[in-house]
């Protein structure tokens, strides 16, 4: 599948083999590699210095003010990559990501990324029958749109099955959310309910947020590394209150800025799929995933969290594909890079 990827179970991953030809490649010991050793020495000497933007080939550099991310003090989510990466991305510019039959390796790269990210977020992978699902997106904005859509549709399906009104959905979030949350709510006609910040608190109040939940709530947004202060919201406290009060309300974690940070700096902090009410997580590759702007990711705990009527199965490009995106065509360079 191209757009939507299943995360293989632990057993399936162990059965998998390396890509064809990889077994023949000999990797040098970094200690024996002069180039690597030289880089290590350079990086050590740079730690306490103000480093200027690296010199680049005139062919790749344009004399435009602010053309280097390092020239902007606010560029917290921009970075420079190696020339080889830029070359790969340039070669992928003409490739349409959705053409799985024509460019199968691009889809394979996406699927492997989804699998790695899902495991990093502790998605359940023990079962061979139920697996996490995920896809690449155009930034976290599209990922959040998809997350809101799936929560809304799950809520609507449940309400209709119970013979209840499904015309007044609402979603609960911190008033300091990124604007894409407001867009998602208004575009998809979901009432915005806010847990407001105070002079001493700039994150969501777990108890206040849970108290806002009613029968029309499709979910709660919790943020890992907020836009304004970089704080982690207490996802576990929200989860535990929902469980304690026996409230069946899902949590979507917006880990756009913190998803590639928290697993490494606070690995024991439970904020992800280790919490039973967390159904989906988004993350941005271009913030701290160390890639150029453009690519985002979203992972769902299981297929149950993604209503099947939102997934479109197509075959007119030469292969069977499962698609859940807001657009169709997109360049392959962001996934490749």
Q: What's the pLDDT, averaged over the residues? A: 81
Q: Sum up the overall morphology in one term.
A: globular
Approximate helicity band = 25-40%
The number of helical elements comes to 11
Strand order of the largest sheet: 1-2-8-7-6-5-3-4
Through-space gap between termini: 20 Å
- How large a portion of the residues is in β-strands, by DSSP E? 5-15%
In terms of structural class, how would the helical and strand content be classed? alpha/beta
Count of β-strands: 10
Which stretches are low in confidence, meaning pLDDT under 50 for 5 or more residues running?
42-53, 58-65, 71-75
Sheet having the most strands: 8 strands, mixed
Rg estimate, integer Å:
22 Å
Order of helices and strands: EHHHHEHEHEHEHEHEHEEEH
Would you mind describing this structure in some detail?
The chain starts with a strand and ends with a helix. The chain is built from eleven helices and ten strands. 36% of the residues are buried. It has helices spanning 10-15, 34-46, 83-92, 104-120, 139-161, 179-187, 206-211, 235-244, 262-265, 285-288, 333-336; strands at 5-6, 133-138, 170-174, 191-195, 217-223, 251-254, 278-284, 295-300, 312-314, 321-323. The chain is α/β, with parallel strands linked by helices and 337 residues long. The chain is globular. The strands form two sheets. It has an eight-stranded mixed sheet with strand order 1-2-8-7-6-5-3-4, with helices on both faces. It is 31% helix and 14% strand.
């Amino acid at each position: 599948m191209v757009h939507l990827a299943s995360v293989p179970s632990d057993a399936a991953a162990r059965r998998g083999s390396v890509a064809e030809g990889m077994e023949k490649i000999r990797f040098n010991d970094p200690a024996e590699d002069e180039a690597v050793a030289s880089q290590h020495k350079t990086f050590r000497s740079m730690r306490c210095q103000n480093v200027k933007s690296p010199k680049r080939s005139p062919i790749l550099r344009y004399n435009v003010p602010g053309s280097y991310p390092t020239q902007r003090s606010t560029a917290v989510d921009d970075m420079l990559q190696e020339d080889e990466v830029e070359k790969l991305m340039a070669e992928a510019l003409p490739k349409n990501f959705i053409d799985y039959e024509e460019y199968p390796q691009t889809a394979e790269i996406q699927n492997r990324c989804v699998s790695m990210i899902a495991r990093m977020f502790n998605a359940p992978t023990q079962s061979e029958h139920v697996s996490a699902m995920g896809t690449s997106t155009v930034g976290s904005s599209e990922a959040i749109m998809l997350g809101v859509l799936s929560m809304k549709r799950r809520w609507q399906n449940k309400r209709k099955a119970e013979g209840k009104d499904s015309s007044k959905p609402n979603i609960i979030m911190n008033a300091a959310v990124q604007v894409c949350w407001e867009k998602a709510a208004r575009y998809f006609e979901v009432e915005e309910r806010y847990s407001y910040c105070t002079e001493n608190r700039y994150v969501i109040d777990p108890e206040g947020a849970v108290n806002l939940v009613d029968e029309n709530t499709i979910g709660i947004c919790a943020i890992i590394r907020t836009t304004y202060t970089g704080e982690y919201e207490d996802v576990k406290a929200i989860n535990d209150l929902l469980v304690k009060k026996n409230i069946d309300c899902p949590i979507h974690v917006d880990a756009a800025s913190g998803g590639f940070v928290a697993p490494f700096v606070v690995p024991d902090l439970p904020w992800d799929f280790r919490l039973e009410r967390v159904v989906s997580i988004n993350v941005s590759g271009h913030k701290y995933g160390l890639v150029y702007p453009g690519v985002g990711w979203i992972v769902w705990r299981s297929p149950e969290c993604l209503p099947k009527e939102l997934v479109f199965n197509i075959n007119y490009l030469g292969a069977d594909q499962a698609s859940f995106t807001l657009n169709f065509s997109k360049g392959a360079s962001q996934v490749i890079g």
